[in-house]
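Help! Submission page says 'invalid entity' but I think these are all valid:
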Amino acid sequence: MASILPPAERRSVVLVTTYAALSLLLLVVGDHLPVAWTRGVGAFLFAPFDRVVLTGDRLFAAWRESNELHRRITQLELENQRLRSAGAENVRLREQLELPVLRGMPLRPVEVLALGGDPMPTSATLSAGARAGVRPGDALVTADGLVGRVTEVWSGLSRAALLTDPNLAIACEVESTGVNGILRFTLAPSPRLLMTAVPLADTVRVGERIVTSDLSLRFPRGIPVGRVVRLRTDANGLMQEVEVAPAAPISRLRHAFVTPGPEPLTPGEPLRPHLENEPARIAPLPISIAAAARKQTRLDSLAAVRRKADRDTAMARAVRASKARADSLKGVPR
Amino acid sequence: MRPLGGFLVAVVVAMLLRSTALSSLAARGIIVDVLAVATVIWALRHGDAWGATLGFTLGLMADLDAAHWLGRHALLLSLLGYAAGRLAGTLVRDSARTQFALVATGVLVHQLWSAAFELGRDAAGLPYLFGRALIATVVSAAFGTALLWVLRGALGRSVFANASRTATKS
């Protein structure tokens, strides 16, 4: 075929055939190739250009955002005062109830250098990396709420999967009622955030706020994710599908914060699940260690049961005492 | 050497546009397929070999960025660059209608090809993906034609004047 073509055309045919063959080869074996490092090289090479391009954008937006931020700061300072007193009260109450004290979220500011993904952005290149203490698994948030999760970290840059990545699943709950579900971006039949695995018996209302769940193994609890905009029964008729409008607009992503994910439940926990709704994959332990761990678990659970029983007894005693006091007070003539 | 310098500039500009301004637009539903637009325009100016090369390079970079289905953009964009380059010799490249039609066809084919990978086995997303492809086609074709018009005004001559093409007219 190529021999009947003029030389220049023959060269073009050979070239395009080579490209096509190479592309087909990549389509077949590409998923097995370790290409993560190429994204690191690409992010490193493009970062200076991204910064130059973004400078103009930042300057344009700075004046407009400045006024809005002044108003917001005043509003938040007033709210902060109220929350401080509520926080102090909360700490006292948690101490009295013997509940663990909640940790604050350390926030590390980062700049969003570039968005990736075709045609919708599903990932973001961030201006901070391992040198700044960013780790894979950290949550990416803005003042409005959750944006995504850090997936790859290089020395000076990192990359985060955004909420629009269909491979990212997040354990969430309805803030007011605590109804749990799994949030995931879906393309079919139209692109949207869906909270699934919500039982029909649970009450969810339009407008309610969705936050990251206490059960999440990957995200700190209580980060706003969005608001309920629509409810419907899923295809099987067994569960509810809750459509959620994201709290943080991904199209206007310029600055964000990286915050560490939750600590492992147990200090020696080796692996976290790949997906939020996937059972944890625990590495097989040698038999002797596994037996010791089982024994320790039994002892721990026995100790926990004993502690709970002690607490219940103390509470019952306190209730009886207060009741007796109330009875004695009733008996006192005025 | 001049096409090589222009080639590198085209790659960097297209990738920067894709990862900054156009990404923000895409998140709002306005999709400009800058990869297909750049490939078609480059192929119209420099012919089939350069068109295929730019298409392959841009496609490969987009594939590496996406991390899934490596080679899908590279395959289609290299073929698109080759086809547009081949047609460059037989078309009136300075006609706005020709530019619009050619860019629109290229973008539509690229969008439908990309949609086929996203659709998988679930046909429920078909209307949305078709709608998205149509929006991308119209917006990208208008963007490409307007860009050529602006470049023509800025240069004072056609972008395709004295263009080097490696393809031989048949």
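Support: the input was valid. A stray whitespace character was the problem, and the output above is from the cleaned input. DSSP finds seven helices and no strands in chain B.
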